[in-house]
Amino acid sequence: MKKIGIGYENYKRIIDDGCYYVDKTPLIRELVGKGGIVTLITRPRRFGKTLALSMLRTFFEKEYDFEGHLLDNRRYFEGKKIMEAEEDVLSMMGQYPVINLSLKSAKQPNFSTAFKNLRDEIIGEYRRHAYMWQSDKLLEDERDQLRSLARASKDEDLFDDKKFEAEVGRYSTALKVLCQCLEKHHGQKVILLIDEYDVPLENAWYSGFYKEMVGFIRSLFESSMKTNDALVFAVVTGCLRISRESIFTGLNHLEINSIRDVSYAEGFGFTEEETEQMLIDYGIADRIPEAKSWYNGYLFGELEIYNPWSIIKYVSGIVNNKRQFPEPYWANTSSNQIIRDMIWHADEDMREELDHLIQGGVIEKRIHEDITYGDVYESEDNLWNFLFFTGYMKKVSERQVGDDIYMTMRIPNREIRSIYSNQISLWFDKLVKGSDRKTLHQAVLDGDTDQMEDYINGLLEKSISTFDSDEAFYHGFFLPLLYGVPGYSARSNREEGDGRPDIVLYPNRPRDPAILFEVKVRKRFNQMQDGLEEAFAQIRDKRYEEGILDDGYIGSVSYGICFCKKSCIIGRLP
Asked: Residue 258: beta bridge partners?
C-alpha cells in the first residue's frame, strides 16, 4: 500500500515520495477552459487548495534548477487524467514563468510582524527567480530593482514610522515588478498563484489591525492583477470571499467561484467515489458507512464532497490501528473562533436555532457572498453566511424571493456537529463556574427544593439543550454546582449500600447528615414525576441510606432530581 501523505501540500513531493494521491489534475483542463484573467476560488480550510496550486505550478511552470538548467516536469503527470486532455492544453505544460505566493504566514499578532512575513514571502519569490539578475534582456536599472527588492530593509530601520510606511509601499507593487521582468526575460506572460489570501485579513480582524492589512492587500492585488498586462492569468484561493469593495476594488474581470458554483466542484475535497475507492484500496471498505456519516455532507455545486483532511487522517489511523474510532480531525486544524464567538454571544433566538440544528434540523437564511470580517457580527444573516462558506453548514435547498436568495441549511456531518457540541460544553462549563452558587448552597442546607429548582432552571434556560437525553451531561452539569457547599464535600458514584448513588454530599461535622441526590432524565415533561419516583425507588432498593449509616454518619437526606430539556424538578424522599 502507498504511503498516506499526511500534511503534504507540495505536489512534486507527493509524487516523488510515492504517496497516495487522489487525482485532481482535471482541474488544469477546467481552468484553461473556464477560467478568466483572475479567478478567485473559495473553499473551506484543508480542502486541498494549497496542493491544487502546487499542482498547477508544476504543470505550467517553465522551471530551472539551481544551475540554470530547464527542468522537465512531465514525469509528474504520467498516468494522470490530465494527460488525456486536448493537445492545446498539454502544449501549455512547462511554458510559463510562475509566481507562487502563500499569505498564510501573515497570521501574526501585529501589523508590523505580519507585513514582514508577507514581505519575506515576496522576497522568496524574487530569489527563486534570481537567474534574471544577470539577464541581458533586462536593463541595468531593472536588474538593480530586482536585487533591491530581493533584499529587505533592516528590521531596526522599520521602527521609524516613515521608513516602515515606505517599506510597505515598496512591496505593495513588488509582484507587478516581478511579473514585468519575468515577461521581458522569457518573452512570455506570467501565471500568478496566490494561496490563502484571506488568512491575513481574518487574523488582522481578530488582532485589531484590519484596516492596515486591508490597505496593503488591496494595493498588492490592484497593482498585480488590475493594471498588469504581463499576466496570462491569476488564480487566488481562500476560505471566504471578501467583498470586492474592500479588497478587489476595480477588478472587473474577476471571476469568483465558491462552493455554490458547479465549476471546479471536483477539484477540491474528495468525491464519494474517490473516498470509497481510497477505503477499498486500504482494505477497509467495511468502514465506508462510518466515514460517510462523519466526514461527508458538503455540497459543492450539486456534488457531494467529503472532507479530504479528515478522510486522510481517518484512513491513516485505521491502517495503524484497526480499532481506531473516528475523530473530529478538522476541529484541530481549522480556526473555530467564529463558532466560539457565536455560541458565547448567542441570544435566545440563536440558541434555539443551534438547538434545532444540532438535533438534526434545518434553518433558512438569506444567502449572499459579499461580506467582510467587519460585517460578520452586524447581523445574524452575515454570521450564518460566514458559517456556510467556511464549511460549518451545508446547503439543503435554495429558493428565490424577489431579488434575494434564501438557503435552507444544516450541519454537514457528525464531525462538524461535534465541534458545535464541544464549544457549547466549554461555554456552558464557564457559565456554570461563573455563577453565584451561594443561593443554591443555602437552599441545599435548608432543604428548600423550590429554591433549588428555581436556581437550576434559571441556569438551564440560558443553555443550549444539545444533550437533552443524555444523563451523563446533566450529572456533569449538576455536580460542579454542589462544590463548595459549606461544611460538605461532594463525591460522585461512590459505593454505598448495594450500589453507587449519583452524588453524595458528605458532612465534615459528625452531627450533620449526609445529603444524597439521584439523577434521572426524561424526554417528555409529563414523564418527569415518574422520573422522581424511579429515583426514590432506586435509593430504597439499593439501600443507599443504610450504606451511609454503615459508614458511621448519623443520618442522610435523600433527593431525586429529574431533568427534561431545560427544566428540572426536585423531590425529597418521603
From this structure: none
- Nearest Cα neighbor of 44 from 311, 302, 330 is 330
The reply to whether 461 falls in a domain is yes
Whether the CB-CB separation of 367 and 408 falls below 8 Å is answered with: no
Nearest to 340 by CA among 428, 450, 414, 271: 428
Highest mean pLDDT among 59-73, 332-346, 422-436, 522-536: 522-536
Listing DSSP states for 180-243 in one string gives HHHHHHHTS-EEEEEE-TTHHHHHHHHHT-HHHHHHHHHHHHIIIIIS-TTEEEEEEEESSPBP
pLDDT in tens, 122-135: 999 999 999 898 89
Does residue 126 form part of some domain?
Answer: yes
**Which phi-psi region, left, alpha or beta, contains residue 543 (left: φ > 0; alpha: ψ -120 to 50)?**
left
pLDDT, mean of residues 150-166: 79
Burial 285-321 (b: 16+ CB within 10 A, else e): eebbebbbebbbbbbbbeebbbbbbbbbbbbbbbeee
* Residues 224, 287 within the same domain: no
Better pLDDT: 539 or 461? 539
Query: Is residue 185 over pLDDT 80?
Result: yes
Pair 384, 488 in one domain = no
DSSP letter (8 states) at residue 455: H
**CB–CB of 498/540 below 8 Å?**
no
Report the b/e string of 500-533 with b at 16+ CB within 10 A: ebbbbbbbeeeebbbbbbbbbbbeeeeebeebbe
Does the pLDDT at position 195 exceed 70? yes
Q: What is the pLDDT of residue 442?
A: 96
**Can you state the angle between helices 414-433 and 288-295, rounded to 10 degrees?**
50
Give me the mean pLDDT over the 242-267 stretch: 82
Task: State yes or no: pLDDT of 371 exceeds 80.
Answer: no
R_g over Cα of the chain = 30
pLDDT tens per residue across span 338-348: 677 777 777 77
φ, ψ at 44 (rounded to 5°) = -60, 160
Q: In whole angstroms, what is the distance from residue 212 CA to residue 6 CA? A: 35
Q: Tell me the mean pLDDT in the region 181-201.
A: 95
- 114's CB contacts (< 8 A; 6+ apart) are 106, 107, 108, 200, 203, 204, 209, 213
pTM, rounded to two decimals: 0.83
Q: Which residue reads 519575506 in cell numbers?
A: 120
- The pLDDT, as a whole number, for residue 257 is 92
Residues 273 and 362 in one domain: no
6 belongs to a structural domain:
no
Pairing of strands 98-102, 38-42: unpaired
Report the range of poorest mean pLDDT among 184-193, 236-245, 253-262.
236-245
CB 393 within 8 A of CB 387: yes
495 in helix, strand or coil? coil
What is the distance between the alpha carbons of residues 459 and 463, in angstroms, rounded to a whole number?
7
> Which grid cell is 572?
425529597
In eight-state DSSP terms, residue 110 is: S
Are residue 223 and residue 343 in the same domain, yes or no?
A: no
The side-by-side arrangement of strands in the sheet containing 404-410 is 363-367, 404-410, 394-401
Across the range 18-32, mean pLDDT stands at 96
Strands 404-410 and 394-401: antiparallel
User: Does residue 293 share a domain with residue 367?
Assistant: no
